[in-house]
Amino acid sequence: MEPKKRICIVGAGPAGLSCALMLKRYGISATIFEKEEIGGLIRNAWRVENIPLMPVRSGEEIAAELQKLIEINGLEIIRDEILSIEDGKLSGAKDEYPYDFLVIATGTRPKRISEFEISDRVSYEYVKLPKNISSLAIYGGGDIAFDGALKAFESGVKPEIFIRSEHPRALPKLIEETRNRKIPLHLKTPIREVRNHEGRLIIVTSEGEEREFDALLIAIGRVENLPRINVVDLSRVLIIGDAAHVNYRQMSIAIGDGIKAAMRIIELLGGA
Ligand SMILES: Cc1cc2nc3c(=O)[nH]c(=O)nc-3n(C[C@H](O)[C@H](O)[C@H](O)COP(=O)(O)OP(=O)(O)OC[C@H]3O[C@@H](n4cnc5c(N)ncnc54)[C@H](O)[C@@H]3O)c2cc1C
Fold first, then answer.
1. What ipTM did this prediction achieve?
2. Would you say 133 and 157 are in contact if contact means Cβ atoms under 8 Å apart?
3. How many angstroms separate the alpha carbon of residue 209 from the centre of ligand 1?
4. What percent of the chain has pLDDT over 70?
5. Is the dihedral of CA 237, 242, 243, 248 positive or negative?
6. How far, in Å, CA of 223 to CA of 127, rounded?
7. Most C-beta atoms within 10 A of its C-beta, which of 51, 92, 98, 136?
8. Across residues 185-208, what is the average pLDDT?
C-alpha cells in the first residue's frame, strides 16, 4: 500500500481552514500551521454582511465559529511561523516539517509606516489595539479604515478618520454608515508625525495641527504575505486566498479557494 501523504496548510484563516475542512470530508487529515490567532484577518471585521446565505456576524463571532469547527472536526493545528519552504520541507521558527502537498494560505501584510511605530498604541489591525481606549485616530481611506471606525464607534470609542486624498476609496455603504454616525472625516489631511505624550499619542497633520488620541490604526493598504519559497517542484504547492489575489480580498473568495484547493489535492491523489 502507498504510504499516507502528508498535507500541510500554512495559515488558519478562512482559506486555510476551508481547505482543511473540505479535505476532512474526504476523510483526509491535514496539518495546519498558524503563527497568530485562529481566523486570520476577518477577526477585525465590524460586520460581515456580504456572504450569501450567512447571517450577519462580527469578525470575532466568525473566528469563534471557526474555532468550534476545528474542535468538532479534530483539525490539527501547530502553532509555528513558517519562515521558508523548500521542496518537501517547511522550515518553521520552532521546527522543520515534511510535506507531500502544500497549501499556502498566508493572507496579506500591511503597508507600513515604520516611523509611526512608536508604541503599542499604534497598530495595523483593530484586534491588536490596546483595550480601554476612548479615542482612536485612523489613517487610511479604504474599507479597513472605515470598518475600523464603525467597530470603534460601536464599542464606545470615538474614532476620527484622516485621509490623504480628496475622496475615500471605501465601499459607499461603509462611507454612508460612518456619515450617519457623524464620525469625523478629515479629507486631504495626511498624518505627518506621531509622538508619545504622557501615555497618549500626538498626531501631527500635514497642516501642522496637533491632536491627541489614545491610539492610532494605520490602514493604508495591504500586500501579499508569503514565506520565502525556494521550491523547484511547484506541482504540489497551491497558493490560495488573499495571498493569491491581493486585489480581491474577500472572505467568500478565500473560502471558495480553500474548497477548490482541497478538490485539486484529491484529484492529484488520484481521487478519494
Ligand atoms: C477590517 C476588515 C474587515 C473585513 N470585512 C470583510 C467582509 O465584510 N467581507 C469579506 O468577505 N471580507 C472581509 N474582509 C477580508 C477578509 O478578512 C479576508 O479576505 C480573509 O480573511 C482572507 O482569508 P485568508 O485565509 O486568505 O487570509 P487571512 O485571513 O489573512 O489568514 C492568513 C493566516 O495565515 C497566518 N500566517 C501568515 N503567515 C504565516 C506563516 N508564515 N506561518 C504561519 N501562519 C501564517 C496569519 O496569521 C493568518 O491567520 C475584511 C478584512 C478586514 C481587515
1. 0.99
2. yes
3. 35
4. 99
5. positive
6. 19
7. 136
8. 96
Residue recorded with cell 499619542: 201
**CA torsion, ordered 177, 183, 189, 192, to nearest 10 deg:** -120
Question: What residue type is assigned to position 162 of the chain?
Answer: F
Which grid cell sits at 271?
Answer: 481521487
DSSP label at 172?
Answer: H
Give me the domain span that covers residue 141. Answer: 112-218
Joined together, the cell numbers standing for residue 270 give: 488520484
Q: Is residue 1 part of a domain?
A: no
Q: Report the amino acid identity of residue 43.
A: R
Size of the chain, expressed as the number of residues it contains: 272
Cell of 105: 494560505
The number of folded domains in the chain is 2
For the segment 228-237, the average pLDDT, to the nearest whole number, is 92
CA of 89 relative to ligand 1 center, distance in Å: 24
Q: Do residues 94 and 34 share a domain?
A: yes
The answer to whether the CB of 148 falls within 8 A of the CB of 124 is: no
| Residue 85 Cβ < 6 Å to ligand 1 | no
* Ligand 1 mean position, distance from CA 12 (Å): 9
